[in-house]
Write a structure and sequence with these properties.
3-stranded antiparallel β-sheet, alpha+beta, about 150 residues
């Protein structure tokens, strides 16, 4: 694999990202149940999950808290509180995640070009991007740095 030309210190911790469909399979829950849990506040958008493109991406650690460890610190309807302080682990920086399609629109590149950068290792899988379910997710900071440093 070619070395990534992006040099930023902070990266997304990709290992905890899981698509809604994959989460349903892993935790034996239907997509309908998980969607209902998203709507009723069991998962907080921007802390536990994020809709990127058309796909819901969840923090697998939160799913483990709920479905394996039976930890659910919420009431219905959800009370306003800072869920980020309720975590024993570092939060995912959802604001920096962007779908391949949205990155293409933002940086005026087609999906084939971005896929080619990934396949050639210019955008390194596991560092700059990852495929979750059927969706490629990119760290927008790293993609921006890539295009700023790229020599055409």
């Amino acid at each position: 694999m070619a070395e990534s030309i992006v040099n930023t210190e902070k990266t997304i911790n990709w290992e905890y990202l899981i698509s809604l469909t994959d989460a349903g399979k892993k935790y034996n829950r239907s997509n309908k149940t998980l969607n209902k849990n998203l709507l009723n506040g069991m998962f907080v958008d921007g802390i536990d999950c994020k809709k990127i493109g058309k796909t819901w991406i969840l923090d697998d650690r939160r799913l483990q808290d709920i479905y394996i460890n039976n930890v659910y610190h919420n009431t219905f309807p959800p009370e306003p509180f800072d869920r980020s302080k309720d975590r024993k682990y570092e939060l995912i920086e959802w604001e920096y995640l962007i779908s391949l399609t949205d990155a293409g629109k933002k940086y005026h590149k087609d999906n084939k070009t971005l896929n080619r950068y990934i396949l050639k290792g210019k955008l390194e899988e596991g560092v700059d991007c990852i495929k979750v379910g059927n969706t490629w997710l990119l760290d927008d900071r790293r993609v921006q740095t890539f295009f700023n440093n790229k020599e055409d």
